[in-house]
Amino acid sequence: MDFDAVKATAGKRVFSAVVRSLPTVGHDRTRGDIAAVVIREAGEDSELKADQVKRRFVCDWIMSQLGYGGGI
Known about the structure:
Blueprint: E1 2-10, E2 13-21, E3 34-41, E4 48-49, H1 56-65
């Protein structure tokens, strides 16, 4: 499995994400390739699943930075 990580800042809130993806063919990454996405807010002990993040645009931005198109 491949691991990608990136950080995003939304105002004063800092989020980081780790995306665990299945091996892909070429550089085309699609929704089906994503095995797991974990988004964590800096300073928080608990991890948030992508669908629980209230600021959805943060998730979309992170995913686009990782080459997954417009989000998940």
